[in-house]
User: What shape does this take?
Amino acid sequence: MTSDAPPTSPVRFGLVGYGFGGRYFHAPLLGAAPEIDLLGVVTSSAERRALVERDSPGRATFGSLDELVAAGAEAVAISTPAATHSELTDRALELGLAVVCDKPFALDAAAATRSVELAESRGLPLSPYQNRRWDSDFLTVRRLVDDGVLGEVVRFESRFERLAPDAGPGASGGGTLLDFGSHLVDQALVLMGPVAAVYAEWRQRENGLDDDVFVALTHTSGARSHLWGSWSQGAPGPRFRVTGTEASYVNGTLMDCQEDQLLAGHTPASLGPAWGAEPSVRWGRVHRGDDGEVVPTENGAWSTFYPAFARAVRGLGPVPVEPRDAIASMTVLDAARRSATEGGVVRFTG
Assistant: This one.
C-alpha cells in the first residue's frame, strides 16, 4: 500500500501527459472509475493546460510530479512520448507513487527491468497499461480457447493494420514495432505462452521510424504466432485468425469499438451496459472448413483496468497486469528489433 487511507476511499490519482492517449483514453477512464479521484494533469505545456480546462473546467494542472505529490497524489498514470516513459516511471516510484505506464512500457528490456526492480524494492504497485487484453475480440478468442472450441491452438495470427501514412508511425510511439508491437506481443504471450525464437521484418520510413512490421514467434509449446503492424496497409487483413486442431476463428478487419466510443466522447459511466458492445455485424465466425458459425463477441472491458489497479493500491488485490510481463514483452521486442536489423532468427536459451 502507498498510504494509510481507508481501504474503501478513492485512490488519489494524477495523469502525466495530455496528448492523444492521455486526453482521449486515460483521462475519461480514470474519471469514470468511482474507485479513483483524479486530482489533475501534469503538463508543462500551456496549450495542453488550456485543453484540460476546456475538457474538464476546474480540473487542476501541475508543473511536475513533485507538485502532484504535494497535492496528495498516491498514484499516477503516465501517457507521454515513449522515450520519456522509463525516466518518469522511475521518478514517480522514487516519490512513492504507484504507477501505471502506457505502452511501450520502456524502450528495451534493460530499462523495463530497472523500473520493475525499483518498484519491487519500494513495495509499490506498478503495472504496464496493456488495456488491449480487455479488447472485445481478444476476450472472445480467450473464451473460445479456454472452452476448447478450437482444440489445441497451433497458430495465432494478429494484426494492427490501417491506412494512415500521414498519421504514423509517430515519433511519440517509438515506431510501429514498439507502438503496435507492444500490444501484439503481449496478447501473443498471454494466449500462447513463452517464446523460444523470434523472426522479424520491417520497412524504415523516411522519418527514420519502422513500419510494415511482421514478427513471427515460435513458442516453447511449438505453436506459432504471426503478428503484423502497419500504418500504410491499404488492405488490412482480419484482426485475428486463430487456428486450432478442431476449428479456426476469424473476425473482421475493424478494431475493438472501445477506442471509437472514447473518441466520440462516451465513457463506461455514460454508456453503461452498451460500453464495449460490438454490433452483431462485426461478430466473428468459427470455421471447420465451411462458411462458419457466427460467434457472439464478448463486451470489451477496458473499464476494468483502473478499478483493479486502485484495489491493488489499497492492498485488496493484484495489479491488472504484472510488471514482469513488461520485461517479457520487451525481451521479445528487443529480439525482433535485432532480427529485423541484422536478419535471421533470434533464439532464446535456458
